[in-house]
Amino acid sequence: MSLTAVDAARALAHALEETLQAIPDDSRGDAERALRRLQDVVLPRLEDADAPVLVVVGGSTGSGKSTLVNSLLGRNVSRAGAVRPTTRRPVLICSPQAREWFMSERVLPRLAKSLGTGGESLDAITIAVEETLWPAVGIVDAPDIDSVEDGNRRLAGELLDGADLWVFVTTAARYADAVAWKHLEEAASRGLRIAVVLNRVPAGAEQEIREDLAALAQRRGLGEVTIYTVEEQPLSDGRLPVQAIAPIGAYLEGIGRDAEERAAIVRRSLSGAVASSLEEASRSLEAARERHRAFESASQDIAQLVASYAREVAFSSSDDVLRGEVSSRIAEVLGSWDMTKTVSRVFAGIGSRLKGAIRGQAAPDVQVQRDLTGGLAQRLADQYHRAWQEALRRARPLVDTGSMDELLNVDATAQLARVTAQQWTREVTEIVREQAESSRVSGRMIAGGINVVTVSLMVAAFTMTGGLTGVEVGIAGASAALSQTILEAVFGERTVRLLAQQARDALNRLAAQSLAQVLEPVTAGLDRASDKVLVDELADAVENAREVLA
């Protein structure tokens, strides 16, 4: 089913609104402007091309915007005065016939609307009904584009974005101000009709200033601009004399009474708003895609970090796990295990354990297993802390890590490391038992030396890569050789490397799982899976709108 222009514009507006959170801060302005133009210009015009024209009277602080509007209407509708900013809340003047249109949600939908005058609240607009105004025109007295108040400047920009025609009011002293020309150039770039009112012109200087302003407009890319001049003169009840503003009034009246002229203004406004919206939406889309790629890349980096640090755990032979007294005790326990005296060792082991229990001491093979498990736990805890710091460093450019502690809780990570190391020891023991059953190794032999065989497989898992060099060979080499001998004696040479790889894989898995658990706050902060859906929807909406509207 093909989309109508209204459907395409509405879908793009919805997608932009939904995707704002997924667009980087420095590009969000593009999306917000595109959304405003779609809501304020494109959709209202597509839905009703004959709706009243919105004329926005804008300009710099103290340029006389409110005075001009009041003078055109012949009564003081908008507040004027010396205190700046004068216009704090915009006023929209319309005929009774156009009141329903301008009060509706289809016009300037983000602003609350109320009938009457007064009020200081921003994000709201006062609707003033003027019996003598042409039904096909609404006039807005906007806040200053260079106001000292941020809210006024923002609202002025939004109103100008929603205009069909902009009457720019400036003075002979300020017509070259940079802020004003920035807005003028932007309006011209999207085809908006512009009329310039040059106010407070000294007597006799009209021709010179008008020519200079016209030349400036040409240089700035505005082309031929309608310029009206108003000489400096006294006000009567805060308003200019009728004859001073008669040409401006005639210009607006001509628009109000000429349907073809209004249609031409609307076409230019709509065409420019569509083109600008599509351009800004496309930039926003690309920025959102780039942001999502950055989050995906960071998430992948963290996943690789987990895998890398988990692999390093298995190389603990170069750390305290197989160093010093632990290594000596391992060598002593493994070296004293005599395969030819298995049965006698069963009973001797039982007797040794009973004596050790009475004395509060663990049997040597049990103690060595605990030493290995404890060394592994320390190695894991060290990796947790290293990985946490590195993960924070990589995530910091993308997410606010201020709520995440710089340092991990030592007790909590130590406990997790102990639990993980103990789980691995249990899994290695289970690997030994399962292999013994499948190989039909003597049950009594395994029962008598299960801890020794488990320790042998743990050592083999640490050293199976052949990565021991230099001093490490002297420290752990004896343990590695003895573990290899015992495992080959029990299971046969072919099976040993397979068992060591199984133990190594189990360690990698458990280490990775625990590392991922530690880094979960960081990975959760980088998870933007929901943004991907929104970005894809925006891409579809931009493509559809480009096909239908462009």
Explain this structure to me?
The chain is α/β, with parallel strands linked by helices and 550 residues long. It is built from 18 helices and 8 strands. The protein has helices spanning 5-19, 25-47, 65-73, 99-103, 150-161, 178-189, 206-219, 242-257, 259-313, 324-335, 342-359, 364-395, 410-439, 443-463, 471-491, 493-518, 520-526, 529-549; strands spanning 53-59, 91-94, 112-115, 124-129, 137-141, 165-171, 193-201, 226-231. It has an 8-stranded mixed beta sheet, sandwiched between helices.
Please render the helix and strand layout as text:
Elements: H1 5-19, H2 25-47, E1 53-59, H3 65-73, E2 91-94, H4 99-103, E3 112-115, E4 124-129, E5 137-141, H5 150-161, E6 165-171, H6 178-189, E7 193-201, H7 206-219, E8 226-231, H8 242-257, H9 259-313, H10 324-335, H11 342-359, H12 364-395, H13 410-439, H14 443-463, H15 471-491, H16 493-518, H17 520-526, H18 529-549
Parallel strand pairs: 1-5, 1-6, 2-4, 3-4, 6-7, 7-8
Antiparallel strand pairs: 2-5
Helix pairs in contact: 1-2, 1-18, 2-9, 9-12, 9-16, 9-18, 10-12, 10-15, 11-14, 12-13, 12-14, 12-16, 13-14, 13-16, 14-15, 14-16, 15-16
